[in-house]
């Protein structure tokens, strides 16, 4: 994996089509609400209640010189293609006429929202820890009529009312700018829309692209919810072989090149989690992604790039006992350290990228966003208008206060660097515990480079009961032995993309995201004991192997 | 319409199957968090992060003596019936074991939610107006670890993390109790689940009950979004004739009894908005609802009862110049004044009721709830697990703080009475303006009893250009004349359930929910002028008819 060079970021003058290269916007004096002075003047009307928004207005550069995205009519469902804008919006164009009084839209008056103000206390960068926030946090305040009073661009009367399926212009501006800073999509007509999280975005994407009987491609071990979202729609998931870097492009090419129509219609939709994949923790390197994109072009695939863990990319693992390398020295160095996304390579507009605030801010916010071509984003937003209606306005207001008004892009990048270092620390704890407590003769692993998951491979063929007992039976036995010892992990078989396909591997998934270091170490110690007992290996005491297999098993009833 | 008698509410002892009648719980000393002392002790574990919940635990009475709901396997789709619980939840039952350390669920640590506390300033009952809230409101405070610290049952670390598709136990308890107080469903196994609003609930219900080619029944004028949700799914809406009380049950019976299979498969799903229907404002009386339910039983219909405007039932209209009757004197009198819901008559469990906080608290919260049989609610929640994931946790926390911790049921009913009186006032303003400014020889209306909408019938046959111009042409002409005069209303044809069916009525919809009184009056005056001009009638000046049709039209460019 080779990270992209830490190049200067090109920003174009808004009133000029000539590209202007500025040295490094991250070192320039920072104005949180003016994004290095490049924010465009935008239409006042779009900040209002349920106002429509065009996210092209928020792009910092001009993208007209880039190719236009391909059309996806040949891949999209009748359901998606047949959605027209809501008929009641036909009236909206008259709302801007001077003096017009509207008795049209059925919006309640904000007079009846029983909220006078809302406040959140949040970290003041760079003091991000819980104790630091308690001591030095900033309290952000939203009033009911801040927009009308000129105090802020977003308020309770706006955010707590109805909104568009796209979400509010306020938060969309922030995510559009963020997407451009991080990914700078290489086609002209890229757009963004908010989602209510990537679980919903996947469900909506399947309804946009698949019919009953279609096949969805994914990594051979994949997010169980993706399979469970697809199956009731009559969409079967077919897994693509993986290695330590995740999905293998050559295997995908081989699968599609030799596709036998007896298996079903040739697949055209790929669901992939390129970074810190769930459950394997695998991260596709830059070259791997370029190869994957080339295969997608060859077979005209449309790609759902689901990237909840993108900003859980960690510092390189330096090995047991070796201190981690120093953190990124600047925002530019941080961004340059990230594996380039498929979106950043997507000259065709064949990628729908799903981003989410769930892993880096709060899952309970139920706010994510989708980046794709104008055609795809429009279809998504039209569907949202008649299903999710719009993302939660309370969350949007809280996130906008935090991200745009308080932190700005620089503060948000500082936060992401903080998270990166925290996950690095946690990852290093679990790896050191695995080094110390797991029987390496039967358990092996790769150091995860991103995400929340550590993926433990079990050499099941060395089990004394193999082949008398099946992989599934042995997996269950080891899993229950872990539970008996007081350590709960997830069984790899729960993540099969296709449960009907033959499998000759055994894994367990352990997360290092949720529990503190001591518990993490203790759980790995217990799991190690359980594996030893199951395999009839010598058990450890105080980190040293001994023969008393039963001794520690009684800790948990 | 005859409201139900103001009966004492029966509450059963929790540890006893004998029904205990208590005189009037609303006059008893009120403990907001103890609901008249009847709240059950509930499992501590269900308040935690992503904890599963059984809403039967929150019911105040025993319902075992009631009939069990019918099964709906013959009506539900393969998609809905095939959904099983999320496979990763198989591990959840081990989480409660003492000493267990879980490396299972991929939940982020709340350490990385950048929120130390959240506060909202809300009205202190009974001082609900905006100025009173500014002056005397209560500030509610949620800390990050209130649950662990024993300070509250719900906090940031819980609400801002992942949750179940049902939503949190905390808010579900409130809506379950509220549903029981208001509707007391007459079957045993009724359950509730949160939704992300009724727009989503309708979309999910259609996926639960309809296949491509099916027909959805609704009022002949209906919520345009319902039609636009159904159409891309290949579901056609067929309208049932209405009168001033909304859908006519005999017409529904006739339609189904004489159903011609050439029109398509016989419909079995009815979408109805019984109270303050959008767009007509019509409210089905109690007898009308009983007749409708009988027709549903006769033809084995499943009913989607969409009731966003249920608590926008207003005081009876006393006529122009007559003061409205006094407000309800007690909570019991208020509840008794409400038209009984279909849910309250639903002995079969054939109704899925959609409730929403959008019209009475905040649309931006994106929180509603569904009440139906255990089978239907389970299918709904399983779908939510893999689509909406869960309702927004930030909203749930804010609503729980307001409704459960601060107001309690009594305070919430006080708020609903406040809203009732506010909408009564607004409705009376528009009715008086219509009496004064509309030409009654061509415009007629019924006083709305509920909701946000006033529905104006136009005697198009009296138009000088009829029948030379079609209904559609004349509707557009009048609508544009209104816009020219500076008054925007909605065209009735936008609400046709079935645009292909013949229509011989013309209506406009005006809402009295959104604008202040003076603007409401002015808009009706302008619309009246526009109608007069279009019909060639004499125009008014200062509320008196005159012959100068062009004079006031120049106010708006």
In words, what does this structure look like?
Two copies of one chain form a homodimer. The first copy, chain A, is of the alpha+beta class and 557 residues long. Chain A has two domains: 31-83 and 135-420, Aspartate Aminotransferase, domain 2; 429-555, Alpha-Beta Complex (Aspartate Aminotransferase, domain 1). In chain A, 30% of the residues lie in helices and 15% in strands. In chain A, strands 6-14-13-12-11-7-8 form a seven-stranded mixed β-sheet, sandwiched between helices. Chain A has a four-stranded antiparallel β-sheet with strand order 15-16-19-18, with helices on one face. In chain A, helix 4 (169-183) packs parallel to helix 11 and helix 7 runs parallel beside helix 8 (286-298). The radius of gyration of chain A is 25 Å and the shape is globular. Chain A starts with 9 loop residues before the first strand and ends in an 11-residue tail after the last strand. The interface between A and B is large, with 117 and 117 residues. Strand 3 of chain A pairs parallel with strand 17 (487-488) of chain B.
Helix content of chain A: 25-40%
How many strands of chain A? Answer: 21
Number of helical segments with 4 or more residues of chain A = 13
Which geometry of chain A do the CA atoms define? Answer: globular
Structural class of chain A: alpha+beta
Report, as a whole number of angstroms, the end-to-end distance of chain A: 46 Å
User: How many distinct folded domains of chain A?
Assistant: 2
Q: The biggest beta sheet of chain A, please?
A: 7 strands, mixed
- Overall pLDDT level of chain A: 90
What is the CATH topology of the largest domain in chain A? Aspartate Aminotransferase, domain 2
Strand content of chain A: 15-25%
Q: How do the strands line up in the largest sheet of chain A? A: 6-14-13-12-11-7-8
CATH class category label of the largest domain in chain A? Alpha Beta
Rounded to the nearest angstrom, the radius of gyration of chain A is 25 Å
């Amino acid at each position: 994996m080779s990270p992209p060079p830490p190049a200067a970021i090109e920003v174009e003058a808004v009133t000029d089509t000539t590209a202007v290269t500025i040295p490094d916007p991250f070192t320039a004096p920072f104005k949180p609400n003016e994004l290095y002075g490049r924010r465009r003047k935008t239409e006042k009307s779009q900040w209002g209640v349920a106002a429509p928004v065009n996210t092209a207005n928020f792009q910092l550069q001009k993208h007209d010189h880039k190719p236009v995205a391909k059309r996806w009519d040949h891949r999209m469902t009748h359901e998606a293609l047949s959605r027209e804008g809501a008929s009641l919006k036909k009236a909206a164009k008259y709302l801007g006429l001077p003096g017009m009084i509207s008795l049209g839209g059925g919006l309640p008056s904000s007079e009846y929202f029983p909220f006078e103000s809302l406040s959140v206390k949040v970290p003041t960068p760079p003091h991000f820890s819980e104790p630091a926030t308690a001591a030095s946090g900033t309290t952000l305040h939203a009033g009911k009529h801040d927009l009308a009073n000129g105090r802020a661009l977003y308020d309770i009367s706006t955010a707590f009312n109805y909104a568009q399926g796209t979400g509010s212009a306020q938060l969309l501006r922030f995510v559009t700018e963020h997407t451009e800073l991080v990914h700078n999509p290489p086609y002209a007509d890229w757009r963004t829309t908010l989602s209510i999280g990537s679980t919903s975005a996947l469900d909506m994407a399947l309804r946009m692209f698949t019919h009953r009987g279609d096949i969805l491609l994914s990594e051979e071990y994949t997010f169980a919810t993706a399979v469970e979202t697809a199956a009731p729609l009559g969409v079967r998931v077919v897994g693509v072989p993986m290695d330590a870097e995740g999905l293998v492009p050559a295997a995908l090419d081989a699968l599609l090149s030799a596709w036998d129509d007896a298996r079903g219609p040739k697949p055209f939709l790929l669901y992939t989690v390129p970074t810190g994949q769930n459950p394997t923790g695998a991260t596709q390197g830059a070259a791997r992604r370029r190869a994957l994109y080339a295969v997608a072009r060859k077979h005209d695939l449309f790609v759902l790039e689901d990237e909840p863990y993108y900003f859980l990319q960690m510092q390189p693992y330096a090995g047991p006992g070796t201190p981690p390398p120093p953190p990124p020295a600047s925002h530019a160095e941080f961004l340059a350290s990230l594996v380039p996304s498929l979106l950043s390579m997507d000259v065709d507009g064949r990628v729908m990228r799903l981003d989410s605030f769930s892993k880096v801010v709060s899952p309970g916010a139920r706010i994510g966003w989708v980046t794709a071509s104008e055609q795809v984003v429009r279809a998504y937003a039209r569907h949202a208008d008649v299903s999710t209606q719009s993302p939660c306005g309370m969350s949007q207001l809280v996130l906008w206060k935090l991200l745009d008004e308080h932190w700005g892009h620089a503060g948000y990048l500082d936060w992401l660097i903080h998270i990166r270092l925290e996950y690095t620390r946690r990852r290093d704890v679990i790896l050191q515990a695995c080094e110390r407590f797991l029987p390496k003769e039967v358990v092996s692993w790769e150091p995860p480079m991103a995400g929340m998951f550590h993926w433990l491979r079990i050499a099941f063929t060395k089990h004394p009961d193999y082949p008398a007992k099946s992989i599934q039976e042995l997996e269950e036995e080891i899993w229950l032995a872990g539970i008996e010892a007081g350590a709960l992990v997830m069984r790899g078989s729960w993540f099969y993309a296709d449960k009907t396909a033959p499998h000759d591997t055994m894994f367990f998934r352990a997360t290092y995201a949720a529990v503190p270091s001591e518990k993490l170490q203790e759980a790995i110690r217990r799991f190690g004991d359980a594996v030893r007992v199951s395999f009839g290996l010598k058990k450890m005491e105080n980190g040293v192997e001994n023969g008393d297999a039963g001794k520690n098993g009684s800790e948990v009833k």
